[in-house]
TrEMBL record:
Keyword flag Flavoprotein: yes
Cofactor(s) this protein cannot do without: FAD
Protein name: FAD-dependent oxidoreductase
PANTHER family linked: APOPTOSIS-INDUCING FACTOR 1 (PTHR43557), RIESKE DOMAIN-CONTAINING PROTEIN-RELATED (PTHR43557:SF2)
Residue ranges occupied by any Reductase C-terminal domain in the UniProt entry: 323-411
The organism's place on the tree of life at top rank: Bacteria
SUPFAM superfamilies associated with the record: FAD/NAD(P)-binding domain (SSF51905), FAD/NAD-linked reductases, dimerisation (C-terminal) domain (SSF55424)
Length: 416
């Protein structure tokens, strides 16, 4: 790579910042340009629904680095401008202000965008989605004692916002068309535990119900009408019905796209010199032996760094066991592993869920035992390394010993 050809990074999140860290550890001289459509420094998104939403942390705590760090590392910041068109043949990127950037290598860390709720009334004032720091600040300002907050969707974002709203004294109702929160992620049994957790903190859950429309007065939302005809008073509505990878730039450029931008284990796309990382990347994970797309902090943190290493020519085989975490009320939880969609798993509990201190494993039968695909702890700390080892090594263990909390996870003998 010629030193006159910059590395261009498209994206304003953690994956972009981590890629720069990796690049600068190996090469202090190659020009680096970061293009971010928000007029903000790259920042982490988890605090937006956790510490920042709770009011425990300032917005600045979410920034990956202060402005001085980019100056000290000679990174040109092109903020408040979007990437409009990518031409891999000429290695040029056209920006929304009409300018063009030539690149030697390019990283697509474009993240994901919101799925919108397609019902009447979502254009009313005080109806929010949570994706940006601006969104977080606006929602936080609405969480006041006695206000009626309706959350549409019982995914991770919906549950974390519900916990923050209750922390601030708001009255909270969650509307979810599935029979349990997080049903597609953790299944019915664990999803029911999440439902009980939120009910115990005063949240009303309307499960198995969709939303027919939102109604308002003078342009502001006042009511959520459910599919059963129930009318829920609403001073504030937060919609969390999922996200989708931001692949338009890659698709228009002719890159291979399938549930994200398809990349290999070194995070290389189908176009020479173009890489992808974070939410948008569907990468081949050599540990799991399949392509995976993960929408969580750890993948942006680790994948962005791995992409930066790959860009500067290091040998990369990016194969982590997927990991994420959540904080809700007095509950801290971590999850590690990967359950392919459609896999029929058994749930094994270690400890009593009613105690709010337990572990859960998603397993499949194999030989005389079970193989752990994923595990989650609730307030049982310092266990994730052992869970990841079970997943990584495809260890077959005895079901009863796995459920016995008196037996350390790293002392589970493999069975044939």
């Amino acid at each position: 790579m010629s030193t006159s050809d910059p590395i261009v990074i498209v994206g304003g999140g953690l994956a972009a910042a981590r890629a720069i860290e990796a690049i600068r550890e190996s090469d202090q001289d190659v020009p680096v340009v970061l293009v971010g459509k928000e007029n903000r420094l790259p920042y982490d998104r988890p605090p937006l629904s956790k510490g920042v939403m709770l009011g425990n942390d300032p917005e600045e705590s979410a920034f990956s680095h202060p402005r001085e760090w980019y100056d000290d590392n000679h990174v040109e910041l092109r903020l408040g401008v979007a990437a409009d068109r990518l031409d891999p043949a000429t290695r040029t990127l056209t920006l929304s202000d009409g300018s063009q950037l030539a690149y030697g290598s390019l990283l697509l860390a474009t993240g994901s965008g919101l799925r919108k709720l397609d019902v009447p009334g979502t254009d009313l004032a005080d109806v929010f989605y949570l994706r940006s720091m601006t969104d977080s600040a606006k929602i936080r300002a609405r969480l006041v004692p006695g206000s009626d907050v309706v959350i549409i969707g019982a995914g991770w974002i919906g549950l974390e916002v519900a916990a923050a709203a209750r922390h601030h004294g708001a009255e909270v109702t969650i509307v979810e068309p599935q029979s349990a929160p997080l049903l597609g992620v953790v299944g019915e049994q664990v999803g029911s535990w999440f439902a009980d957790l939120h009910r115990s903190h005063g949240v009303t859950l309307r499960l198995g119900e969709g939303v027919e429309r939102l109604e308002g007065e003078d342009g502001r939302v006042t009511t959520v009408v459910t599919s059963s005809g129930e009318r829920l008073p609403a001073d504030t509505v937060v919609i969390g019905v999922g996200i989708r990878p931001n692949t338009r730039l890659a698709e228009d450029a002719g890159l291979e796209v399938d549930n994200g931008i398809v990349v290999d284990e070194a995070l290389r796309t189908s176009a020479d010199g173009v890489f992808a990382a974070g939410d948008v990347a569907n990468w081949f994970n050599p540990t799991l032996g399949t392509h995976v797309r993960v929408e969580h902090w750890a993948n942006a943190h680790d994948g962005g760094y791995a992409a930066g290493q790959s860009i500067v020519g290091k040998e990369v085989h990016y194969g982590p066991v997927p990991f994420f975490y959540s904080d809700q009320y007095d509950i801290g939880l971590e999850y590690a592993g990967y359950v392919p969609r459609g896999t029929d798993t058994e749930v094994v509990f270690r400890g009593d869920p009613a105690s709010n201190e337990f572990m859960t494993f998603w397993v499949v039968p194999e030989g005389d035992g079970v193989r752990v695909l994923a595990g989650m702890h609730v307030n049982v700390w310092d266990t994730m390394d052992a869970v990841q080892e079970l997943v990584r090594n495809r260890t077959v263990v005895d079901r009863e010993r796995l459920a016995d909390k008196e037996i350390p996870l790293d002392q589970l003998d493999s069975v044939s």
